[in-house]
Amino acid sequence: MHSNDNEEHWTDHAICRGADPDLFFPIGYSAEILREQEQAAKEICGNCPVQVDCLTWALRVGEPDGIWGGTTPEERRYLRRTAEAPARRPLPVIVVRGDASTSEHASAA
Predict the structure, then answer these.
(1) 80 annotated among ligand-binding-site residues
(2) Where does the record place the 4Fe-4S Wbl-type domain (predicted)?
């Protein structure tokens, strides 16, 4: 597995280096404790000078676990879905012959 120098560089400046990994990768705890740990990890991320780099990396590689760039796995899945979703455009109104609402669509146009 090869990594490039840019990926290694941002991790050298992460303030979570040396922190308890269990804080960023909590498992097997009750929902309340899990939320408390996620919040504590996010607070550390919030003060980190490389938070954007960390989140960008986690999104790019599809990191499925842990707190990265101040986000939970669920938040990253949402960000990826939003980023990959095609732009939404209004669909044209299609009127089928014999449709009871044909006159409504025609008057709205």
Answers:
(1) no
(2) 15-78
